[in-house]
Amino acid sequence: MQEGRPFFSIIIPTYNASSTLAKAIKSILAQTYTGYEILIMDGKSNDTTVQIAKSFLNLDHPISIVSQSDNGIYDAMNNGIKKTRGIYLYFLGADDYLIDDNVLEDIHEQLILTSTDVIYGNVQSPSLGSIYMGECDDQLIFHKNIAHQSIFFHRRIFELTGYFNLKYRTHADWLIISIGFLIQI
What we know:
Elements: E1 8-14, H1 21-29, E2 36-42, H2 49-54, E3 63-67, H3 73-83, E4 88-91, H4 103-114, E5 118-120, E6 123-125, E7 130-132, E8 151-154, H5 156-161, H6 172-182
Parallel strand pairs: 1-2, 1-4, 2-3
Antiparallel strand pairs: 4-8, 5-8, 6-7
């Protein structure tokens, strides 16, 4: 790892997320592993989202905020990819949060042990029926997506596959993973 380079870049796309953003950020700041940067990509919210994000700037954690018009979540995620410095990229929804304080530590440990380009876990969501997905194989991935909130991507994945395709309003993350399975990432 390069000196001063974060291991994880956590990209949070936001738009009018004032009611949920603080919980998402606090779940990151509570992590035992601190080799990360946070990039909040705001789509020109017209509520207090940006002010809430700015309230976290004076802490000892690297947080950046970009507020600019975009063409939806995947455009915000693509713009975030271009601005990050981390080795692994993670996309956290502004209405999501890390389930416990050891998530980044656990993922970091697994990535060091396996040297894989993509690692994923489960998403716990009452709206999705508690646990979403589980273990995936190359047959299942063509029938059901892995939620982007559970995937950590090595940045080279986007060099191989390109960025999220903006013609998809939803499931553009599914396309990135599907392409990855096809090229054996």
